[in-house]
Design a protein that fits this description.
The complex is a heterotrimer of chains A (286), B (277) and C (331). Chain A is of the alpha/beta class. Chain A is built from nine helices and ten strands. Chain A starts with 12 loop residues before the first strand and ends in a 5-residue tail after the last strand. In chain C, helix 3 packs across helix 4, helix 3 packs parallel to helix 6 and helix 6 packs parallel to helix 7. Classes of the chains: A alpha/beta (286), B mainly alpha (277), C alpha/beta (331).
């Protein structure tokens, strides 16, 4: 990950797309202080997150939440669902009495469309979609203002994915949560997001409003991603992908070896610059 | 339930329960006082009055074995509990914090493992002087490394899982994560190891008392009974056979239990394997 | 004449909880050179179907019915004969490229193994053929690749190697189990392209098991939709995907992002559940009491077989059945 910067406004969704290994998850984990960055800063409501400690840190932890990719390891396998649901409140000592927490957990379950019988089950007795919904409910219990969803549905079937995404979107809009939605599926991202940032090998190569990016992708890599879905049905893919990671030299454009248009200018790493209304692209050739 | 499907586990459990009862109700169950000497009855074979015969001082062997169960079980359980506790705490710290902490703890483990266990215990017990308490301490000190290694390995795998990361992102502190999240997930192999470990500790304690380092006479201990009986191995073999059998059966029972627990303790094993399609 | 024809295949697992019916009364045909896609959600029994054909199921599985391959019933074949069929007649492309290769054998060794075994070649000849196959699958430096070990290859290359292994026995039928699961967009195109290459080069039939409707649309001639162990709809790919008749297929299509992310409510019944009626009843937006108790028979509409009492041929029914648009509900 190298020189990544972006902002998410309250109630806005920023989609982050990229292939596996492009550093999307690293971004997510770094923002929440789960991985220390080599350099750089993260601001939440004007305050710095990564250097905070003690009570400030805990407060940030309550307001910034994350959902991960794998439903099978998202919950402690030895804790019943209600224990997992109540955990954030216990850690943050929000509701003091046991009764209040019980009521709250029932409310949360209702919001995500699960019934009370699920409360006493173990995670392995629930399906992937149900678990991701429990995770959503858990996140909600602290009323966060910022949420990172790291490929929340990539392990789920299409119909279940639709279910979870709808709940996520509804919850986000109802509570005015700023959302960073990370996925490799540009179609899903375009359904969920207001803005989309495309990431390639740890660098943001393009960022634009969702519709603009899907209709008018400028960076060659974004173009490939957008076309990837329609080109499935054509007889063959036009792009040749060479597996030559080893020649990748430090200073040139990350996309150099795969780019069909690469020229001499690309030996120097491009930076994001404005290429349209609210449209930023890191490419020399525009 | 699958516990009863496995006959050996069931047998193991029954034997252990019987032993516990014997230890608790020893005064009621025994026909004679274990320490009363009756030289006229010395070295008698098993008969209706003495079910397992008498030793060289005319003490009832059956009664001594029953009373010996108290000491043996106490040693087994206490030693295992202490070594498991040491192992779990150190193993968890090593696995969770990693880096320097891991390095230091695992090197200590290596140092302890470099000595043959029983010899090390012998040295420790020798230094501390004879006595049940010292034997227990010695055995606990040489028995914790296995637990630490197993716990460390499981923690290493488990701490990468997303629920741990979620807990960290919620602002939970390290102690909370270790004891609320990691401990329940690493405890299964520890319990399995412990149930076998109890048997081993009993055996080791018997060995140490055989060498004269355990409980002091006249306290009835299986190991020292064996040791005392060896002089009469040819003329009165029942002096060694019965305490030997007691040790054998007890150790086996704990081993059976450990094997059964292995299958039972994982809730995920009960999953329908073909749910995934 | 069908290459593989499955008749009334029922696969049951005897478990502690009872009998788990992973496939019930499945009948399918694959013609030579054709690609048949089995689509369905996780746990619907589609992988079990593939494994039933290969007879690679755990011991507690009971397979009933008929699997006719080139006029012999695979289910009655002795084990020894079946071993010959696997690999030389029917190739298998496993799901995860990262774990399906033996890490301690070089690519060349793993590839020639099959050639020596199934085609009785001597080592030297097998090596030449192996290099040929690798080259034909787009691994240009095939000599270097065959000397390498799995950990030295990227995911895409491993998938190619696995494909090479699966076709090394010159099978007439290839079974691919979820070849695109968990892959990102770009890798997915590569795999689709690879499969397309395979079926063009070998002219083998392909049984493609997937939950990805788009991959199925790109590759398949025919599609069978599986739900909770049953085939609920089968027919020409275009027809099934563009004008689905069964409410479940309609729901699947409607849940795609570009069709508006309409979820199917509820979740599928366990495979243990053995009620007589329609398995989709509990989630079906148009079902009624009749569907619940009466066994549903297959009906044929314009070459499409559908297991449903109420076939809606008007098209565009999905919009009516599955709720409002994504953004509208969200707003």
């Amino acid at each position: 990950m190298d020189g990544v910067g972006f902002t998410v406004k309250p109630g806005e969704t920023l989609g982050l797309v990229g292939e596996s290994g492009s550093g999307k998850s690293t971004v997510a984990r770094t923002m929440l202080g789960l991985i220390p960055p080599s350099s750089g800063r993260v601001f939440f409501q004007g305050q710095e997150v990564l250097t905070a400690n003690g009570r400030m840190k805990k407060e940030f932890c309550g307001k910034m939440q994350i959902i991960f990719q794998h439903p099978e390891s998202a919950l402690n396998p030895r804790m019943k669902i209600y224990e997992s649901l109540l955990e954030p409140m216990l850690i943050h000592r929000q509701n003091s009495s046991r009764e209040e927490m019980k009521i709250k957990s029932r409310e949360l379950l209702q919001q995500i469309g699960l019934s009370e019988e699920h409360l006493t089950r173990y995670p392995h007795e629930l399906s992937g979609g149900q678990i991701q919904r429990v995770v959503l409910a858990r996140v909600l219990s602290l009323s966060p203002q910022f949420l990172v969803a790291d490929e929340p549905t990539s392990m789920l079937d299409a119909s279940v994915q639709a279910q979870v995404l709808r709940i996520l979107k509804r919850i986000q809009l109802e509570n005015g949560i700023g959302l960073l939605f990370i996925s490799h599926d540009i179609e899903v991202v375009s359904c969920m997001s207001d803005r989309i940032a495309v990431m390639y090998k740890g660098q943001i190569v393009e960022s634009a409003p969702a519709e603009e990016l899907c209709q008018n992708p400028l960076h060659p890599y974004s173009r490939l991603l957008v076309e990837a879905f329609s080109s499935l049905e054509k007889s063959s893919v036009k792009q040749v992908w060479v597996e030559d990671e080893k020649i990748d030299t430090a200073s040139r454009c990350h996309y150099y070896s795969h780019c069909p248009h690469a020229g001499p200018a690309c030996r120097q790493r491009p930076v994001l610059r404005e290429t349209g209304a609210e449209h930023y692209t890191a490419c020399w050739l525009l | 339930m699958s516990v009863f499907k496995n006959k050996l586990t069931l047998i193991g459990m029954i034997i252990i329960l019987l032993l516990l009862c014997a230890a608790i109700f020893a005064p009621v169950l025994t026909p004679h006082n274990p320490n009363t000497q009756c030289l006229s009855q010395a070295l008698k074979g098993p008969c209706s009055d003495y079910p397992c015969g008498t030793d060289e001082f005319g003490r009832c062997i059956f009664s001594r074995i029953i009373y010996g169960a108290r000491v043996s079980l106490a040693i087994g359980i206490a030693v295992t509990a202490v070594s498991a506790a040491i192992g779990v705490v150190l193993g968890m710290a090593a696995g969770y914090y990693g880096r320097a902490v891991d390095e230091i703890i695992m090197r200590i483990v290596d140092i302890f493992l470099a000595f043959p266990g029983l010899i090390l215990a012998l040295v420790v017990a020798g230094l501390l002087g004879p006595g049940i308490g010292n034997v227990m301490l010695a055995l606990a000190l040489v028995g914790w490394m296995g637990y630490a290694r197993v716990v460390r390995g499981t923690v290493l795998a488990e701490k990468e899982k997303e629920y741990i990361e979620t807990a960290r992102s919620l602002g939970a502190n390290d102690l909370y994560i270790m004891f609320r999240h990691l401990l329940p997930n690493v405890i299964a192999p520890v319990i399995i190891m412990a149930s076998v470990g109890i048997g081993y500790a009993i055996l080791a304690a018997a060995g140490l008392s055989f060498l004269g380092l355990g409980a002091q006479p006249p306290t009835a201990v299986w190991g020292s009974m064996l040791s005392d009986g060896k002089t009469y191995l040819q003329t009165a073999p029942h002096l060694t056979i019965f305490p030997g059998l007691a040790i054998l059966v007890t150790v086996l029972a704990f081993n059976f239990l450990g094997d059964g627990l292995r299958d039972l303790l994982d809730p995920r094993l009960k999953d329908k394997a073909w749910n995934r399609g | 004449m069908a290459l593989l024809s499955i008749r009334n295949l029922t696969t049951i697992f005897n478990c502690e909880e009872g009998q788990l019916k992973a496939c019930s009364n499945v009948s399918l045909d694959i013609n030579p050179g054709q690609t048949l896609g089995i689509i369905g959600e996780t746990g619907c029994g589609k992988s079990v179907l593939g494994m039933s054909v290969l007879r690679l199921l755990p011991a507690n599985a009971v397979i009933n019915g008929q699997i006719m391959y080139k006029n012999q019933d695979l289910l009655t074949l002795p084990d020894k004969e079946m071993c010959k069929v696997r690999g030389s007649e029917i190739g298998f492309l496993p799901q995860s490229p990262s774990t399906s290769l033996n890490p301690v054998l070089s690519i060349g060794e793993q590839l020639t193994e099959g050639l020596q075994l199934h085609r009785g070649m001597i080592k030297e000849k097998a090596r030449i053929i192996a290099l040929d196959i690798l080259r034909s699958l787009g691994l240009k430096d095939s000599a270097r690749t065959s000397a390498e070990y799995p950990h030295q290859l990227s995911g895409g290359m491993k998938q190619r190697v696995l494909a090479a292994i699966s076709i090394s026995g010159q099978p007439s039928l290839l079974i691919a189990d979820e070849p695109t699961k968990g892959l990102d967009a770009v890798n997915r195109i590569q795999v689709v392209d690879l499969l397309r290459q395979l079926s063009r080069k070998t002219r083998a039939s392909l049984l493609l098991i997937t939950h990805d409707l788009k991959v199925a649309a790109a590759l398949c001639d025919e599609i069978a939709v599986m739900y909770s162990g049953e085939i609920v709809e089968k027919g020409p790919a275009e027809q099934v995907l563009n004008n689905p008749l069964h409410p479940y297929t309609q729901g699947l299509v409607a849940s795609l992002p570009e069709r508006g992310l309409y979820p199917i409510p509820g979740h599928s019944p366990g495979l243990l559940d053995d009620s007589p009626g329609c398995r989709f009843y509990s989630r079906c937006p148009i079902g009624n009491e009749k569907c619940k108790c009466q066994p549903i028979i297959n009906r044929e509409v314009d070459g499409v077989h559908v297991r449903c009492l109420y076939i809606d041929q008007s098209g565009g029914a999905q919009q009516r059945i599955y709720g409002r648009g994504f953004q509208s509900e969200a707003g």
